[in-house]
Design brief:
Length: 232
């Protein structure tokens, strides 16, 4: 089975092609989310050329559906919606935070965190056991210290968890004075297409699939338009 996985949730977009469980192509383009719309289809074409495939050969699509930057997420989701609808193929939506957990070296309680900018983070609480990654609490957007305080309220065993993040260096100064200052840390890559694909592979046997019509984003944070809108 051929699976095409996309991630445009952050500043670096990536595309991965899987032949069953094996990654056969991985293309990454650094840069701001404004570049995703320009480069994404070229990245897809490049990944397919590496394995001599056409879009019609893809059996299922996987995409990171958030949380993340609004414009960046919409670009990836719109691309997958279009391709899935055009070729009549199913889609697996994968949380960015769950995909970050896939990078973890060991099983156990995980606190995935990614930079949401504006002084905030996107974060969650998950438990990883082999190929299973299960949410233990809601995904949130808060200042780091507020988020970690919420994690402590959600889980009595939070101090035994591992904080896992692709932006760990930027978080360290604020972690020092947080409720989980002594928590184990693990820095992971920011390239997510491969782990998005692996999470999708784990979800497929459970029937956790969507179609182009029902595929939606998980923004967590309201858009600027919603925040600034005032009723007349």
């Amino acid at each position: 089975m051929w699976l095409l996985a996309l991630d445009t949730s952050g500043r670096a977009a990536s595309v991965a092609v899987f032949d069953d469980d094996r990654v056969t192509a991985l293309v990454t383009t650094p840069g701001g989310d404004e570049q995703h719309s320009v480069r994404l289809f070229r990245e897809i074409e490049c990944a397919l050329q590496q394995v001599k495939l056409r879009l019609s050969d893809i059996d299922v699509y996987a995409v990171a559906n958030g949380p993340g930057a609004f414009t960046a997420l919409r670009i990836g989701l719109t691309a997958v919606k279009s391709l899935a609808e055009m070729h009549g193929k199913p889609v697996v939506a994968v949380s960015v935070l769950e995909a970050v957990c896939q990078h973890a070296r060991a099983d156990g309680l995980l606190v995935p965190v990614v930079d949401a900018y504006r002084g905030q983070v996107f974060g969650g609480l998950y438990e990883k056991k082999g190929s299973e990654i299960v949410a233990r609490g809601p995904e949130r957007v808060l200042r780091l210290k507020e988020f970690l305080a919420a994690v402590c309220r959600d889980a009595a065993d939070a101090r035994a968890a591992t904080l896992i993040s692709p932006t760990l260096v930027r978080l360290e100064p604020e972690l020092a004075g947080s409720p989980l200052a002594g928590i184990r840390r693990e820095a992971v890559p920011s390239v997510l297409a491969e782990v998005v694909g692996r999470r999708a592979r784990a979800k497929l046997p459970r029937g956790e699939i969507s179609d182009a019509v029902h595929l939606d984003a998980n923004y967590v944070r309201r858009s600027d338009a919603e925040l600034l809108w005032k009723p007349k």
